[in-house]
Each structure stands twice: as C-alpha cells, then as structure tokens.
Amino acid sequence: MERDRLRRRRKSDMIWFLQAWTMTMSDDPLAVQLVCFDIGGVLIRIVDDWHDAFRLAGLNLPQAVGNGDGEARFRAAAQAYETGRIDDAAFLAAMTERLTGLNTDQARAIMSAWLIEPFDGVAQVIERVNATAAVTACLSNTNLLHWRQMEADERYGPMLRKLDQHFTSFDMGTRKPEPAIYEQVEALMGLPGQRILFFDDLEANVNAAR
Questions:
Q1: Are 53 and 208 within 8 A, CB to CB?
Q2: Which end of the chain is less crowded, N or C, counting CB atoms within 10 A of the terminal residue's CB?
Q3: Which residue stretches of the chain are H helix?
C-alpha cells in the first residue's frame, strides 16, 4: 500500500519532456554531444527520504535517526559511502552499530527499498538519443550497494546498459552539486559544458552544472 502510494505520487514530467525533446534532436545534431541523465528521480523512481525507506522496508525509524543529530550523522555516513570514502562494511556498520542499532539484514533491506521502479518510457528515450549523434551517460550520486542492485535487477540493468557512459559519485570521489564532478565529466569526455545536456530532479544540481 505504501509503495503503491509512492508510485502514484507523481508521474515524471521530465520523461514527457525528454520524449518530446528527442523528437527534435535531429534538427541540430551537433549542438548537443552528450546527454547526461541523473538516475534517481529521472530514470528510476526512488523514495523521498530515509523515513520512507525505513517504512517500505517494514521497519520503524529509530529515534537516533529521527532526531537532528542522529540524522546528520546518518547523512554524513551515506555521503561518505556515496563518494567512495568508506566501503560496504564501514557503511553497514554505521547503519547497524553507530546510528540505528539495526542488524545487517535490516540495513540491506532499507537500502534495497530505496529503489522503487523505472519511470515509464525511459528505455525508449535512451534509445531515441542513442539513435542520434549524441553520446548518452548517467551522472548519479549513488553507492556501490545500489549500483550492484541496479545491475543485477532486470528492471534496471538493461536500461543502464543502453547508456554509453556511467559516471557515479562512488567512482569519481565527489558528488553533485560539487563543481569537481561536472569538471571531471567534461574532462573525461573532452567536451565543454555547452555541448552537454544534463537532466536532474534537483534544482541545486542543475544550477551547479551550468
């Protein structure tokens, strides 16, 4: 019931825009050379926050996470994991021992609940862009647990494999909206920012990419 509510919460307006936009790309094929997608909130429906992740995993949000100090420490551990500064074991330890008192299976269930389903039409949008002269990529703040989950899941893996390049925060050692992550993409692709079209569901990440 709760998962269904989150699925119905919104239809991705961004996907509608992408479908319309890709139909006009051939008018100026050299204007954009890289189309870069965020994953969560753009290609895949995700929960709103840790509160929803706990709820979808069938667990109560511990008080240590719900209060300001506990949530700040929890967020710091998640961001360290997203940028590759700590490994799986250290992150799960942060969840199970220092922050929430959960066991490892519960911690993994919470992480798994974060991903809900692909937005309708995203695979077709990627295919349309791939049919043009532009290269496709993802640029995502994500972690190794979620990346492995997406690669192994038939709902996500084939879609991700349609993308030409994968840029992830845990590989790049930085995360959006830090300028370094956008600079790395430009350097690795050998493209100026003006040749890159970037889609993200967070305004701060889009503004930082400009």
A1: no
A2: N
A3: 2-8, 13-22, 50-56, 63-66, 68-82, 88-93, 104-113, 122-130, 144-152, 157-161, 169-172, 179-189, 203-209
Mind listing the pLDDT tens digit for each residue in 162-184?
A: 999 999 999 999 999 999 999 99
Q: What is the CA radius of gyration of the chain?
A: 18
Among the listed residues 39, 38, 144, 147, the one whose alpha carbon sits nearest the alpha carbon of residue 86: 144
Judge residue 34's burial from the number of C-beta atoms within 10 Å of its C-beta, 0-12 exposed, 13-18 middle, 19 or more buried: buried
Which amino acid is it at 93? A
As a whole number of angstroms, the distance between CA 52 and CA 39 comes to 18
CA distance 67 to 69: 6
What is the C-alpha separation between 34 and 129, in angstroms, rounded? 9
Q: Report the SS3 class of residue 38.
A: coil
Q: How far apart are CA 4 and CA 185, in angstroms?
A: 36
CA-closest candidate to residue 79, choices 172, 140, 141, 166: 141
Residues in the chain, total: 210
For helices 122-130 and 13-22, give the axis angle rounded to 10 degrees: 30
More confident residue, 81 or 65: 81
